[in-house]
Batch of 3 targets.
Target 1
Amino acid sequence: MSVLPWLQQYWDHLCDYKIQNRVPQALLITGNKGLGKQHLANQFVFSLLCAKPLDNGLGCGHCDRCLLLNAETHPDFIQIRPDEPGKAITIGQIRSLINRLTLKPQFESYRVVIINPAELMNNAAANAFLKCLEEPAERTVILLITDKPSRLPATIVSRCQKLSVAKPDKEIVLAWLKQQNVETLQSNVSTLLGLAQGSPLQALDYANDGSLTLRNDCFQAWIDIAKQRKHPVNIAENWQKLPESPLIFWITSWIIDMIKCCYQTKADWLYNPDLKKQLQELSKQMELKELFKLYDLMLITQQRLNTQINKQTMYEEILIKWFELNLSK
Ligand SMILES: [Zn+2]
């Protein structure tokens, strides 16, 4: 296990806390999805709990404490997450955490709690959690992880030290993706990274799960609608069976790229540099203000995703608008 290259500076920062013996009682780790926040936090857990950490601060991986961590049975490590993906973290979960924290840590070093995604604590849970921050438990470090810090109550945020993971340098990430044997072709790696909105771990997932092929198929359908070879309602019927993330982002990215093409942007700056030729072709004679209207519709759609929206209707609305836009060209 090594530190992900774009996280090295944050790792050094965490190690400094430990070396200087001033590990914060609550640390809020923020940053976009797919940057490795949980990975960084896990490594810090090993670092704090390992009996014989390595010189670079990482856990040794084979002492009795590390083995307990690997087996997820270390008594001084508590992980709080929703019982089901997307569900809230409940007051029941936080109450049982508070109960556990009234006991002393079992070993002589730290006790660590990770709450991820922290913004999923509902109001009652967040209020109860405040108590953990106001009355810190003995030798306890709480790591809150979120990509949506604005959804956390200010009362919690203000009581945490912050560590904000920034979007990494593209060159570092491209080099890392190549090391993972993602693709030998630079252009494809670049495309993956663009589709993953700059998140290296997401790009790696996309490379392994065939997302690029699916994206290409969907884009072909998008062209077919523009050329009136396929009917928007039929495509909507196919698309509503696909996971809306990342599909909604892909559609949005085509529209943004078409807008950029109207401004003669360089391929490097597009989300889909590999589709530049087709996107440029599509954007020709297209009214910029119509493209912006379509973009607005995508923003509204993204907000609607959290509601009980009928996906068939949602895609029909987008695709019919796209169809009409091309008719009036
Ligand atoms: Zn160890």
Target 2
Amino acid sequence: MSQNNRIDDYNKNLPIVEIYTAVQSEGSRAGYPTVVIRTTGCTHRCYFGEGGWCDSWYTSIHPEKGKFTFNDIIKMYDDNPHISEMMLTGGSPTMHPKLVNELTHLAHDRNIVITIETEGSHFIATDYPIDLLSISPKFSNSVPVVGVETPQGRLTDERMIKQHNKFRLNYEAMKKSIAYHTDYHIKPVWDGKDENALVEILECINTLNVPKEKVWFMPAGDSREALFKSYPILFDWVRDNGFRMTWRPHIIAFEDQREV
Ligand code: SF4
């Protein structure tokens, strides 16, 4: 096990903007109480047209500074001994390999199941494999449009688009990650209408050779209203095509509030 990939100062500020408890509501671990750790920084700059900017834009388009230490994570588990799950999300957690590696040690010592949410930009090798990669590849409907205002009022330019596309659909990284870590699933977001997006999603599933039971379709939308529009089409489509569906009940409960 490599020592140079470990965090030695547990009081040092890390690129983490949120630590909170929640119930996992997407994918194969749905229903489990979990500790959510949100890192800041992302290789992507997702803009979904009518769906708006990345819903955690404060970690990606306008990244906030990290404000938590490793000891804060340990305290969260000490304070919540009933929780034995971790959802590591972002931003893009794989931008922080040391932190992710240290978390695999904590998880190993305390019997915690780690789910890492990733867009698949980077492969990282950890001392203990990650239990579940929850991969949400980003398709062409996530590319920013020149001249659109960002959440903090900057105008999108070509540089931003280039940055977004630099690591988008990094199939080599996704394949390596799937082969290295314990388990995975793919979580494509689809509004049930955009046929081009569906073609890209199915191409991705094909390229990665993902069995249907590892594909969890998610309805598009970050509001109840938007979700409800996608639901009927997506339910029927998933029923008829043999994939899995995950319906994002945290949005029904809390819409776009932070830390839910
Ligand atoms: S990859 Fe995820 S965190 Fe990064 S910009 Fe896109 S939606 Fe946001």
Target 3
Amino acid sequence: MKAIVFTKYGSPDVLELKEVVKPTPKDDEVLIRVHAASPNDWDWGALQGIPFVNRLIFGLLNPKKQILGSDIAGRIEAVGKNVLQFRPGDEVFGDLSGDWGGFAEYVCARENALALKAPSMTFEEAAAIPQAAMLALQGLRDLGRIKPGQKLLINGAGGGVGTFAIQIAKLYGVEVTGVDSPEKLDLLRSMGAEHVIDYTQEDFTKNGHCYDLILDVKTNRSIFDCARALSPNGIYVTVGGSMARLFQALVLGPWISMTKNKHIRILALKPNKGLAYMKELFEAGKVIPVIDRPYKLSEVPKAFRHFGEGRHKGKVVITLEHNNKT
Ligand SMILES: NC(=O)c1ccc[n+]([C@@H]2O[C@H](COP(=O)([O-])OP(=O)(O)OC[C@H]3O[C@@H](n4cnc5c(N)ncnc54)[C@H](OP(=O)(O)O)[C@@H]3O)[C@@H](O)[C@H]2O)c1
């Protein structure tokens, strides 16, 4: 089968389209013919071996897991003998982070990493959902305890997580402020953000406005500045971003929470927790993935470059065409 392989850490130039052995599912796995996949920030970090934790996961000097790609959608081709939930022919999607292997014509996955795709979803839409939508949902609902009538600010609102977060937040009847680069502000407005901030012109922590909830996808400001932008009893949730700022939030967050009546929370993603709910929202027409543009499997290096430059709106998606011989 064809796959995008990396044998050393580096820029998207180290990604190569190669012929590799088609995987065989273990007893508790299914074999999926991948129809679409989507890169995430984690793939981007793993490609470069940065931060160092990625080298602990992928290999110290060179990557041992050589096929990236965690968000996938496809059709089940074979099932291991202990698999209970799925049958060949089922259309599924999910986040395979921990195992990866999605930028390939076929991948094996444990059944608990998958959900049935809604018939009305395209494979591209399904592949766009798992990691970004779960970060948005778990950040807003589980850690942020989002409530109707609140004022919410999303920092980095025009990317994968942010575009899901705006749509989920609107279901709760909150007033949304989206922060991103000027090219993405019209998109944020069109998705229902009442207010937008161009981060190249304005620092949301210094404009005098306060928010009941902040969802931070970039975590590029001091935790004290973010706390200042919170209303009394407000909650700040970071889903990721600058390692130095995350460390600051980890160390000083509990102290701020104790002394300032403001709450600092760091999200640790629970992969696929909430995937079935997101499928329901999609089927009800309430949440629709924003897809920047699809790329072919052979164009994964190009897709990564585009993703790394940060110019994408919503999710970058890889689409795979199969002929009957593959
Ligand atoms: N917590 C966990 O367990 C976990 C697991 C996986 C991933 N993550 C994290 O999840 C996040 C993934 O987010 P994503 O997929 O939405 O990323 P994304 O698609 O790259 O979106 C990020 C957005 O932020 C914007 N941006 C860049 N600089 C900014 C700034 N200074 N201020 C405000 N916005 C800015 C970008 O736009 P421009 O580039 O045009 O400016 C882009 O629209 C990452 O932080 C990752 O580390 C966390």
